[in-house]
Design goal:
The chain is mostly beta strands. The protein starts with 5 loop residues before the first strand and ends in a 7-residue tail after the last strand. The protein contains no helices and eight strands. It is globular. Strands 1, 2, 3, 4, 5, 6, 7 and 8 form an eight-stranded antiparallel beta sheet that branches. It has a domain of about 70 residues: Jelly Rolls, CATH 2.60.120.
Length: about 100
């Protein structure tokens, strides 16, 4: 089993690929402080997000929603999205196909 490095993505946020295959990738994002941000972005991948811990305000297209531990949702291909950490925590994101830019 390959061990992937922990990569800083912004202030107080890191990502680590947990597993990957050309068709699917699982990635852990750690938010260490309230106010840490996952900047607005979009990509061609379908994304599923599971909130392992913490609390977050997500922007999904033109909607905002508050999510907390145990919540999950799917982000369609091409949808602009991002989040603000309200309580430190961990997101587990799955992408299909794999995010080659994360390797």
């Amino acid at each position: 089993m390959a061990q992937f490095p922990i990569i800083p993505t912004s202030q107080d946020v890191t990502r680590q690929v947990l597993s990957d295959h050309p068709d699917l990738m699982v990635v852990e994002f750690r938010f260490e402080e309230s106010g840490a941000e996952g900047a607005l972005h979009d990509h061609p991948h379908v994304q599923s997000t599971y909130v392992k811990s913490g609390k977050f305000r997500f922007t999904l297209g033109k909607e905002e929603k508050i999510v907390a531990a145990g919540d999950s949702f799917v982000i369609p291909s091409g949808m602009t999205h991002g989040c603000i950490c309200l309580e430190p925590g961990v997101l587990i994101d799955s992408f299909t196909p794999r995010r080659d830019d994360f390797l």
